[in-house]
Amino acid sequence: MQIYIPLVRQQIRNIGSASVISSTSKVLKPIKPDLSTISCTVVDQTGTVPIPRDLRKIDSSNVDVAPSIAVRSNGILVNLLHIKALIKRNEVLVFDTASPQSASKLSLFMYDLESKLQTKVVHSGMLGINNGNHQNILNQTYEFKTLECILVNVMAVLETELREHAAKVDKILKQLDSQIDRAVLKDLLVNSKDLTMFYQKSLLIRNTLDELLDNDEDLENMYLTENYEIKRLIVDQESDGKSSVLKAAKQDGSSNVNTNSNHHSLIQEGSESKDTGEIEMLLESYYKQCDEIVQQAETMINNIKSTEDIVNIILDANRNSLMVFELRVAIFTLGITVATIIPAFYGMNLKNYIEDSSIAFVGVTAVSVVLGGIMAIIYLRKLRDVRRMTMVSSKQLDQFDNDTKRGIHEKVRRQRESKTLEQRRKLEKEIVWKWLLGDHK
What we know:
By secondary structure, the protein is an alpha+beta fold. It has eleven helices and eight strands. The protein has three domains: 52 residues, no CATH class; 210 residues, Methane Monooxygenase Hydroxylase, Chain G, domain 1, CATH 1.20.58; 118 residues, no CATH class.
């Protein structure tokens, strides 16, 4: 099975036949600058080809792949931004990239990685087991050094991009505060898209770290050096047990020695001594840093959306003002048109019997002006009523008023009826008391 990954130097050892070596040498060709990927088949030291399904996560092509950190028993596959690497307990395979922008970032990462690995970090983690006693090694393990260096570089790149986006967005928002320009709005749209892409990218990285922190099995498997030491001690213990059994069988003639108990006890001791606090603290620190970057990017996106809403409101208000101004001009034009109708009628060459009147001109002019003014006033009032922003229509308001008035009248009528009924009962009681007392007046 062939995998499209960049070529790395692989040491092929213990391969029996020369034909296998010649066939693998044909496959392992050097990478060319104009090729983003090449076909490569990896052969391990035992001569077998491993199942390469995990290596699909690492691709040097220009297609963006979701970030991931895949943990396996003998390695950690890392795909974060421009860094695509395979971390082992004693080596790391950093894959090349075809993007010129990513290549410059990757070169800086390589210098940082070299200096980081050459520096000894004092660390008091349990990295090995020797005859059942915990042995503290003062140096941080190789895989943790490499992983931390990758995370440091990734967070530095994210912070740099965040500062660039923040500077551009702040400049555009300040310009929009003073003046709304078409070119500035276009720049805001472009930067908003770039910021959204950055937000999605940083969010995926944060989710990757979060998923890794929630998986205890992956956290335990990330201790590559410690797991290797435990496996090696188990193998040595098994070999020592078998040799002791054979010696005891030769000397005593019996083979009743049980080595399974030592094997299980060593496995149980190794599993009980596994503490993932070191890697959890490392991942949590960079998870919080990435989460802070995500929160800042989200805040900037919200600021952009708020600014866009305010700009839309201002533009809508200006558009409405222009429409109202246009309607007012149309209303005044209508009034002038109505005012010129009557003089137009008198402009015809027909007898109207007021040609000789001295007040005809003044009267016709006054009537025309009054009609034009009345027409303009009527439509301006209607325009004012239309501009009133209400949640219900005028018909609904009239119906509500009528219902309210009807309810008030009904309440007043009931109060009057109750007062009349009380007065009638009171009068009847007074008549009964007078009749009982014998006062018939």
